[in-house]
Amino acid sequence: MRALNIAATGMDAQQSRVEVISNNLANMSTTAYQPRRAEFTDLHYQQAARPGTITSADGTELPTGVQLGLGVRLASVTMDQEQGSLQQTGGTYDLALEGNGFFEVTLPDGRAGFTRDGALKRSGEGQIVTSDGLPLAPDIVIPADAADVSINADGEVYAYFRDQVQPQLLGQITLATFTNPQGLEALGGNLYVETPASGGPVIGAPGLEGRGSIRQGYLESSAVDAVREMTDLIEAQRGYELNSKVITAADQMLSATVQMR
Questions:
Q1: By residue range, what is the domain housing residue 194?
Q2: How many helices and strands, by DSSP H and E, does the chain display?
Q3: What are the transmembrane regions (predicted)?
Protein backbone atom coordinates (compact mmCIF):
# COMPACT_ATOMS: atom_id res chain seq x y z
CA MET A 1 0.00 0.00 0.00
CA ARG A 2 1.22 3.44 -0.94
CA ALA A 3 -0.18 4.83 2.31
CA LEU A 4 2.63 3.19 4.31
CA ASN A 5 5.38 4.89 2.32
CA ILE A 6 3.54 8.21 2.18
CA ALA A 7 3.00 8.27 5.94
CA ALA A 8 6.66 7.34 6.46
CA THR A 9 7.74 10.40 4.49
CA GLY A 10 5.41 12.50 6.65
CA MET A 11 6.95 11.16 9.85
CA ASP A 12 10.45 11.79 8.51
CA ALA A 13 9.50 15.37 7.56
CA GLN A 14 8.06 16.13 11.00
CA GLN A 15 11.13 14.61 12.65
CA SER A 16 13.33 16.97 10.60
CA ARG A 17 11.13 19.87 11.67
CA VAL A 18 11.52 18.92 15.34
CA GLU A 19 15.31 18.79 14.88
CA VAL A 20 15.32 22.33 13.45
CA ILE A 21 13.12 23.58 16.30
CA SER A 22 15.32 21.91 18.90
CA ASN A 23 18.39 23.63 17.45
CA ASN A 24 16.60 26.98 17.66
CA LEU A 25 15.64 26.40 21.29
CA ALA A 26 19.17 25.27 22.12
CA ASN A 27 20.45 28.61 20.79
CA MET A 28 18.06 30.85 22.73
CA SER A 29 21.03 32.44 24.49
CA THR A 30 23.47 32.46 21.55
CA THR A 31 24.57 35.98 20.67
CA ALA A 32 23.05 37.24 17.39
CA TYR A 33 21.63 33.79 16.54
CA GLN A 34 19.04 33.89 13.76
CA PRO A 35 16.47 31.05 13.91
CA ARG A 36 16.02 28.50 11.15
CA ARG A 37 12.78 27.36 9.57
CA ALA A 38 12.15 24.01 7.90
CA GLU A 39 10.37 24.19 4.54
CA PHE A 40 8.79 21.25 2.77
CA THR A 41 7.60 20.32 -0.70
CA ASP A 42 5.41 17.52 -2.00
CA LEU A 43 6.92 14.58 -3.86
CA HIS A 44 6.25 13.28 -7.36
CA TYR A 45 2.67 12.49 -8.42
CA GLN A 46 1.58 9.34 -10.18
CA GLN A 47 -0.67 10.26 -13.06
CA ALA A 48 -3.38 7.58 -13.07
CA ALA A 49 -5.40 9.81 -15.40
CA ARG A 50 -3.97 13.11 -16.58
CA PRO A 51 -6.21 16.19 -16.57
CA GLY A 52 -7.49 16.86 -20.08
CA THR A 53 -7.27 13.23 -21.14
CA ILE A 54 -9.89 12.31 -23.73
CA THR A 55 -12.07 9.56 -22.26
CA SER A 56 -14.55 8.77 -25.04
CA ALA A 57 -15.05 8.80 -28.77
CA ASP A 58 -16.98 12.05 -28.61
CA GLY A 59 -13.94 13.90 -27.24
CA THR A 60 -14.94 14.30 -23.60
CA GLU A 61 -12.00 15.47 -21.48
CA LEU A 62 -11.31 14.79 -17.81
CA PRO A 63 -11.60 18.12 -15.99
CA THR A 64 -9.30 17.17 -13.10
CA GLY A 65 -7.85 13.72 -13.69
CA VAL A 66 -6.46 11.35 -11.07
CA GLN A 67 -3.10 12.42 -9.59
CA LEU A 68 -1.86 10.42 -6.62
CA GLY A 69 0.78 12.11 -4.45
CA LEU A 70 3.68 10.13 -3.01
CA GLY A 71 4.38 12.16 0.11
CA VAL A 72 6.56 15.01 1.29
CA ARG A 73 10.25 15.85 1.60
CA LEU A 74 12.40 18.49 3.26
CA ALA A 75 13.08 21.22 0.68
CA SER A 76 15.28 23.61 2.67
CA VAL A 77 16.18 24.94 6.10
CA THR A 78 16.02 28.71 5.80
CA MET A 79 17.64 31.25 8.10
CA ASP A 80 15.19 33.95 9.18
CA GLN A 81 16.62 37.43 8.72
CA GLU A 82 15.41 38.78 12.05
CA GLN A 83 17.04 41.46 14.18
CA GLY A 84 17.54 40.34 17.76
CA SER A 85 16.99 42.84 20.56
CA LEU A 86 19.99 44.84 21.74
CA GLN A 87 21.19 44.27 25.28
CA GLN A 88 23.40 46.84 26.97
CA THR A 89 26.59 45.39 28.42
CA GLY A 90 28.88 48.39 28.74
CA GLY A 91 31.79 46.37 27.36
CA THR A 92 34.32 48.37 25.37
CA TYR A 93 34.60 45.71 22.67
CA ASP A 94 30.97 44.57 22.73
CA LEU A 95 29.49 45.68 19.40
CA ALA A 96 25.94 45.16 18.15
CA LEU A 97 24.82 45.57 14.55
CA GLU A 98 21.63 47.56 14.16
CA GLY A 99 20.44 46.64 10.69
CA ASN A 100 21.93 44.60 7.85
CA GLY A 101 25.47 43.36 7.63
CA PHE A 102 28.15 41.07 9.03
CA PHE A 103 31.53 41.62 10.62
CA GLU A 104 34.36 40.15 8.55
CA VAL A 105 36.98 37.97 10.23
CA THR A 106 39.97 36.02 8.97
CA LEU A 107 39.66 32.25 9.37
CA PRO A 108 42.68 30.06 10.24
CA ASP A 109 42.89 28.85 6.62
CA GLY A 110 43.02 32.44 5.36
CA ARG A 111 39.45 32.56 4.07
CA ALA A 112 37.07 35.37 4.94
CA GLY A 113 34.45 34.49 7.53
CA PHE A 114 31.42 36.53 8.50
CA THR A 115 29.55 36.89 11.77
CA ARG A 116 27.01 39.09 13.55
CA ASP A 117 28.43 38.11 16.94
CA GLY A 118 29.98 41.31 18.22
CA ALA A 119 31.30 39.93 21.53
CA LEU A 120 34.83 40.97 20.57
CA LYS A 121 37.98 40.88 22.65
CA ARG A 122 41.46 42.39 22.70
CA SER A 123 44.29 39.91 22.18
CA GLY A 124 47.69 39.95 23.84
CA GLU A 125 49.08 41.66 20.72
CA GLY A 126 46.37 44.33 20.88
CA GLN A 127 44.32 42.98 17.97
CA ILE A 128 40.53 43.09 18.04
CA VAL A 129 39.45 39.44 17.81
CA THR A 130 36.39 37.25 18.28
CA SER A 131 35.80 35.02 21.31
CA ASP A 132 37.60 32.24 19.37
CA GLY A 133 40.61 34.47 18.66
CA LEU A 134 39.84 35.18 14.99
CA PRO A 135 41.11 38.64 14.00
CA LEU A 136 38.68 41.21 12.71
CA ALA A 137 39.21 42.35 9.12
CA PRO A 138 40.56 44.87 8.40
CA ASP A 139 43.08 44.28 11.17
CA ILE A 140 42.90 46.87 13.95
CA VAL A 141 45.53 46.95 16.72
CA ILE A 142 44.98 48.80 19.98
CA PRO A 143 48.21 50.30 21.40
CA ALA A 144 49.26 48.97 24.78
CA ASP A 145 49.29 52.46 26.33
CA ALA A 146 45.76 53.38 25.19
CA ALA A 147 43.72 54.54 28.17
CA ASP A 148 40.34 54.03 26.48
CA VAL A 149 38.82 53.03 23.16
CA SER A 150 35.75 54.48 21.47
CA ILE A 151 33.94 53.03 18.44
CA ASN A 152 31.28 55.17 16.80
CA ALA A 153 28.25 54.19 14.74
CA ASP A 154 30.30 54.47 11.52
CA GLY A 155 32.82 51.91 12.77
CA GLU A 156 35.67 54.39 13.38
CA VAL A 157 37.93 53.20 16.18
CA TYR A 158 39.55 55.90 18.32
CA ALA A 159 42.11 55.46 21.08
CA TYR A 160 42.52 57.92 23.96
CA PHE A 161 45.92 58.50 25.56
CA ARG A 162 46.69 60.14 28.89
CA ASP A 163 49.14 62.65 27.43
CA GLN A 164 46.93 63.65 24.45
CA VAL A 165 43.78 65.76 24.35
CA GLN A 166 42.51 64.53 20.99
CA PRO A 167 41.86 60.85 20.33
CA GLN A 168 43.84 58.99 17.68
CA LEU A 169 42.02 57.26 14.80
CA LEU A 170 43.24 53.66 14.59
CA GLY A 171 41.09 52.42 11.73
CA GLN A 172 37.54 51.68 10.67
CA ILE A 173 35.47 48.53 11.10
CA THR A 174 33.71 47.63 7.87
CA LEU A 175 30.62 45.51 7.30
CA ALA A 176 29.76 43.02 4.58
CA THR A 177 26.36 42.53 2.96
CA PHE A 178 25.20 39.84 0.55
CA THR A 179 22.64 39.66 -2.22
CA ASN A 180 21.24 36.49 -0.63
CA PRO A 181 22.42 36.14 2.99
CA GLN A 182 20.25 33.03 3.38
CA GLY A 183 22.64 31.33 0.95
CA LEU A 184 25.60 31.62 3.34
CA GLU A 185 27.14 28.39 4.62
CA ALA A 186 27.06 28.07 8.40
CA LEU A 187 30.28 26.76 9.96
CA GLY A 188 29.21 26.86 13.59
CA GLY A 189 30.68 29.22 16.13
CA ASN A 190 28.43 31.99 14.76
CA LEU A 191 30.48 31.96 11.55
CA TYR A 192 29.46 31.92 7.89
CA VAL A 193 31.31 31.75 4.60
CA GLU A 194 30.13 32.84 1.18
CA THR A 195 28.79 30.41 -1.41
CA PRO A 196 27.72 30.79 -5.04
CA ALA A 197 24.13 31.03 -3.72
CA SER A 198 24.91 33.95 -1.41
CA GLY A 199 26.93 35.93 -3.90
CA GLY A 200 30.14 37.72 -3.03
CA PRO A 201 30.39 40.14 -0.10
CA VAL A 202 29.88 43.86 -0.66
CA ILE A 203 32.13 45.47 1.93
CA GLY A 204 31.96 49.07 3.05
CA ALA A 205 31.46 51.49 5.89
CA PRO A 206 28.52 51.00 8.25
CA GLY A 207 25.46 53.12 7.53
CA LEU A 208 26.03 53.24 3.77
CA GLU A 209 24.36 51.32 0.91
CA GLY A 210 21.92 49.51 3.16
CA ARG A 211 24.44 48.46 5.80
CA GLY A 212 23.49 48.82 9.45
CA SER A 213 25.22 50.87 12.12
CA ILE A 214 27.38 49.80 15.07
CA ARG A 215 26.42 50.24 18.72
CA GLN A 216 29.33 50.07 21.17
CA GLY A 217 28.58 48.59 24.58
CA TYR A 218 25.70 46.45 23.30
CA LEU A 219 25.22 42.89 22.09
CA GLU A 220 22.52 41.52 19.80
CA SER A 221 20.44 38.85 21.52
CA SER A 222 19.23 35.66 19.89
CA ALA A 223 16.18 36.27 17.69
CA VAL A 224 14.54 32.99 18.78
CA ASP A 225 10.91 33.41 19.87
CA ALA A 226 10.40 30.68 22.48
CA VAL A 227 6.60 30.86 22.35
CA ARG A 228 6.50 30.44 18.58
CA GLU A 229 9.02 27.60 18.72
CA MET A 230 6.99 25.75 21.36
CA THR A 231 3.83 26.21 19.28
CA ASP A 232 5.61 24.84 16.21
CA LEU A 233 6.95 21.95 18.30
CA ILE A 234 3.45 20.93 19.39
CA GLU A 235 2.24 21.17 15.79
CA ALA A 236 5.13 19.01 14.56
CA GLN A 237 4.49 16.44 17.30
CA ARG A 238 0.82 16.19 16.36
CA GLY A 239 1.73 15.83 12.69
CA TYR A 240 4.11 12.99 13.56
CA GLU A 241 1.40 11.26 15.59
CA LEU A 242 -1.16 11.59 12.80
CA ASN A 243 1.20 10.04 10.27
CA SER A 244 1.94 7.18 12.67
CA LYS A 245 -1.82 6.57 12.96
CA VAL A 246 -2.02 6.37 9.16
CA ILE A 247 0.62 3.61 9.26
CA THR A 248 -1.38 1.79 11.93
CA ALA A 249 -4.59 2.10 9.90
CA ALA A 250 -2.87 0.91 6.71
CA ASP A 251 -1.40 -2.04 8.59
CA GLN A 252 -4.84 -3.00 9.88
CA MET A 253 -6.26 -2.81 6.35
CA LEU A 254 -3.46 -5.04 5.04
CA SER A 255 -4.04 -7.47 7.90
CA ALA A 256 -7.75 -7.64 7.06
CA THR A 257 -6.91 -8.32 3.40
CA VAL A 258 -4.52 -11.14 4.31
CA GLN A 259 -7.06 -12.78 6.62
CA MET A 260 -9.81 -12.85 4.02
CA ARG A 261 -10.96 -16.39 3.17
A1: 86-220
A2: 2, 20
A3: none
